[in-house]
Design goal:
This protein is α/β, with parallel strands linked by helices and 143 residues long. The chain has one domain: 3-Layer(aba) Sandwich (Trna Endonuclease, Chain: A, domain 1), CATH 3.40.1350. It is built from three helices and seven strands, in the order βαβββαβαββ. Strand 3 (50-53) and strand 4 form a beta hairpin. The longest helix has 15 residues, at 104-118.
């Protein structure tokens, strides 16, 4: 039986809008560690960077962000921007914090704080994932 690739790029992506290497790295991590199917939609495409399909078949639009700073404010700003970019679709924000080397415990604290500030204003935001060097933090928003 042939295995299906877990990370693919959409067929209609223009050469100038191909996914960034950091977006590919995030997609590969989600596929490997969370058993998700990831369809990368390309750069600068309205409605999010990717379509995620969970192991149980739930579908979400996702926006990927890579942190440049390990501050609580950076988590909030990136979550606010990313949740806006998924548009009218049920959305997931995926923040890659590996490059800033933040401890998972600090990332959890900053994530929870950012969800408290951003979540009430973003009714379509369903989940937040933060990739750290130690683990993936996964929060489902209860509505």
């Amino acid at each position: 039986m042939a295995t299906q690739r877990k990370v693919r790029s959409a067929r209609n992506i223009k050469p100038s809008n191909e996914p960034l290497p950091r977006e590919m790295a995030i997609a590969e991590t989600l596929a490997e560690q969370l058993d998700m199917q990831v369809l990368l939609r390309g750069r600068n495409v309205p409605g999010g960077d990717a379509l995620l399909v969970t192991a149980v078949g739930r579908r979400f639009r996702a926006e990927f962000k890579t942190l440049q700073s390990a501050s609580a404010r950076a988590f909030e700003r990136n979550m606010r921007e990313a949740s806006r970019q998924t548009g009218k679709y049920p959305g997931v924000v995926v923040i890659d914090a590996r490059a800033v080397g933040i401890a998972a415990t600090d990332a959890e604290t900053y994530t929870d704080r950012a969800i408290g500030l951003v979540g009430p204003r973003r009714p379509r935001l369903q989940e937040v994932m933060v990739i750290t060097n130690e683990k993936i933090i996964h929060r489902r928003l209860v509505r």
